[in-house]
Design goal:
alpha/beta; six-stranded parallel sheet; 6 strands; 16% strand
Length: 191
């Protein structure tokens, strides 16, 4: 069994995330593609901006749009910081013998030595490193370089555009745009 793991804050999930998921899914043809929304990342100073429930709703819209994938809520249900190592241990228990590949971006690869239990992790999984902020990359095993057309969109940019009342059309799929607007997510708060 082959499992692809795609974790992130997905706050919100956007066209860049969907392109990565789609390209990797169709190339790898996994038995299971898991989106794992992070709880509290140890390498980020703050957690998600919107509720876990809102992020899960947007992820479900993205999964319906893509036609594949499911959400694993392990990190949302844990208390404290979310470490990939604990998530992978949980998946290894649920799916003994599975080949697990974890999608990360070039930016995450650059800080991989700061990850909790990284030496153990590199023995447990293979990493698919998608080019982010670079055109091409050459990486040592167990890191697999994966090149897609660059889409320099970030969740931070989308949140900023929402706060400034700018359009986010084409950066997120239409149902997610409607949800963000209807729920007034990421809008600047009146003081």
């Amino acid at each position: 069994m082959k499992i692809i793991v795609y974790g992130g804050s997905f706050d919100p999930i956007h066209i860049g995330h969907l392109t990565v998921a789609n390209e990797v899914y169709h190339y790898e043809q996994p038995d299971l593609f898991l989106f794992i929304p992070t709880g509290h990342s140890p390498l980020k100073s703050s957690g998600a901006v919107v509720s876990d429930d809102a992020r899960v709703k947007m992820l479900n819209m993205a999964i319906e749009y893509l036609g594949f994938g499911q959400i694993d809520s392990f990190e949302l249900e844990r208390s404290g910081k979310s470490y990939t190592y604990h998530t992978i241990c949980n998946l290894k228990e649920k799916y003994p013998g599975a080949l697990i590949k974890v999608i990360i971006g070039t930016d995450q690869y650059r800080s991989i030595n700061q990850w909790y239990e990284i030496e153990q992790l590199t023995k447990m999984v293979q990493f698919i490193v998608v080019n982010r902020e670079v055109e091409q990359q050459t990486l040592p095993a167990p890191f697999q370089a994966f090149t897609i057309p660059r889409i320099d969109i970030s969740s931070t940019m989308i949140r900023k555009r929402c706060a400034e009342q700018q359009s986010i059309r084409c950066f997120v799929i239409s149902p997610i745009e409607c949800f963000i607007r209807k729920e007034h997510l990421y809008e600047a708060k009146e003081s």
